From TrEMBL:
Keywords noted in UniProt: Glycosidase, Hydrolase
Domain of life: Eukaryota
GO BP term (any one): carbohydrate metabolic process
Listed Pfam families: Glyco_hydro_32C (PF08244), Glyco_hydro_32N (PF00251)
Organism expressing this protein natively: Bodo saltans
A GO MF term: hydrolase activity, hydrolyzing O-glycosyl compounds
Domain Glycosyl hydrolase family 32 C-terminal residues, every copy: 219-449
Organism lineage string: Eukaryota, Discoba, Euglenozoa, Kinetoplastea, Metakinetoplastina
Similarity annotation: Belongs to the glycosyl hydrolase 32 family.
Every Glycosyl hydrolase family 32 N-terminal domain range: 29-179
Protein name: Beta-fructofuranosidase-like protein, putative
Length: 455
């Protein structure tokens, strides 16, 4: 970009590396290192380590970053500059197998990005090794990612991995975070609408409104869906967009939004939540109550965090990276089970809305584990006493990419549904499920479009 050129006398190359922070350290730290050269004509031999790091967090448990990316986002749209833009480092963690955006300000002296905003997951699902480029014609940054497989049945399926649809990356100054939403030009692939609801329609508790019936004559499982809901701002709810549905009551995959995550806001004494750690840091230890509040607040502020555990002083683990206490462990996935007989620990979860790609009822031949993460319920722009949720989903046979509220949250994954003998699983429904008040959820509008091939 002309807004951020390399220095004429020096060129830099960024790569993910593992660094042992101390001579006797046994656990490496993931960093993005800068290599430099004054002669860009010799890419093989010219670059040497500059001694500087673009980014690194000593408490992140990833021991290696992959596919680092660095770019600027404008707060007003269009091209950004070093003085007006938000500096973003995108890094892929080999430990968690997720991509993250780290946002802040760029220090031109140290060549380092100093975080000023909590990091966020690029996508909560099976989405990795992403890269961006600057579209100079339309003045926008475009993001692609890799949607891989979750098992080893490559040969039976005939392929392994796919590139995601292109996404536009913008900085939301009001919410101080990154949005990534589908490239608007994808609308050119739409056929005539298969289904459309333009009139607000209440959805009774534990019921569904069918948008597209599953049948051999229905469009194939290659479509785009948009649905907007009005939801209660002060009571529990869950809305679902059911996809790849094989008749009502049959198999389906769903993208759901809940008003609160499982056990959101809970606090458990003498309880551990094993697994899922992505960040682990020491605490002062002078006041256990203050340490617990510190750990809880750290999780609340970090959108990647879905659970936390405080480890009391006197309970260090026998080996790195957890061989110190007191400490706080932040977790990016919900542990499968709690250990309620653990005097070492106090555990809890933030209170937060929750988006999920659910596959347990899908009939898939692959993994049925959900992909999940935290979400925010934005106020309805037409009724501040209610909330509004917009879901935008692309289905391309086994690939599902879901976006909430114009890309504020993202979750992607794979679902392998075998073809049935008399019909295929291509139905679409919207549902309000257990927890909502009677008719408290209203479908404002919904559309389903078949998608043509790009070829």
């Amino acid at each position: 970009s002309s807004a951020f050129p390399d220095r004429a006398e020096r060129f830099y190359f960024a790569t993910g590396i593992s660094v042992f922070p101390e001579p006797n350290a046994t656990t490496p730290t993931a960093k993005v290192a800068l290599f430099e050269t004054s002669d860009i004509s010799d890419l093989e031999k010219g670059f040497r380590f500059s001694g500087k790091f673009l980014f690194g967090d000593p408490y992140e448990l990833s021991n290696m970053f992959e596919c680092p990316d660095f770019f600027l986002l404008s707060k007003e749209g269009g091209a950004a500059t070093l003085t007006s833009g938000v500096a973003v480092v995108k890094a892929s963690s080999m430990t968690t197998r997720h991509d993250y955006f780290y946002m802040g300000s760029y220090n031109a002296t140290t060549l380092n990005v100093e975080q000023t905003t909590a990091p966020v997951a690029v996508d909560y699902g099976n989405w990795y090794a992403s890269k961006t480029f600057w579209d100079s014609t339309l003045q926008q940054r475009i993001l692609f990612g890799w949607i891989g497989e979750e098992d080893g049945d490559y040969a039976q399926r005939g392929w392994a991995g796919v590139q995601s649809i292109p996404r536009v990356v913008v900085f939301d100054d009001a919410l101080q975070t990154v949005r990534t939403y589908p490239l608007p030009q994808l609308e050119g692939l739409r056929g005539a609408p298969s289904a459309k609801i333009a009139t607000p329609t209440p959805i009774a508790n534990d019921s569904c409104v069918e948008l597209l019936m599953s049948s051999p004559s229905a469009p194939r499982a290659q479509h785009e869906i948009q649905a907007t809901f009005q939801v209660p701002a002060s009571s529990e709810f869950r809305v679902e967009l059911r996809l790849l549905q094989y008749n009502i009551g049959g198999s389906y995959t769903s993208v759901s939004v809940d008003s609160n995550m499982p056990n959101g806001g809970a606090l458990w004494n003498n309880t551990d939540q094993p697994g899922g750690d992505y960040k682990d840091f020491p605490l002062p230890g002078t006041d256990a109550g203050a340490d617990i509040l510190n750990c809880s607040a750290s999780c609340e502020a970090d959108r990647r965090c879905v659970a936390w555990t405080y480890v009391r002083a006197g309970f260090p683990a026998p080996s790195p990276p957890f061989n110190y206490a007191p400490r706080c462990s932040l977790k990016g996935t919900l542990p499968s089970a709690l250990n309620p007989a653990a005097p070492c620990c106090v555990s809890g979860r933030p209170q937060s809305a929750w988006i999920s790609l659910n596959r347990e009822s899908s009939g898939t031949t692959g993994s049925t584990a959900p992909w999940q993460g935290r979400a925010s319920i934005l106020p309805d722009p037409f009724d501040s006493t209610e909330g509004r949720i917009k879901l935008h989903v692309f289905v391309d046979h086994s690939v599902i990419e879901a976006f909430m509220d114009d890309g504020l949250e993202r979750v992607s994954g794979r679902v392998y549904v075998p073809t049935a003998s008399t019909a295929i699983a291509n139905g679409v429904s919207v549902c309000s499920v257990t927890g909502a008040q009677e008719s408290a959820v209203q479908l404002q509008e919904a559309s389903v479009w078949p998608l043509n091939s790009i070829w």
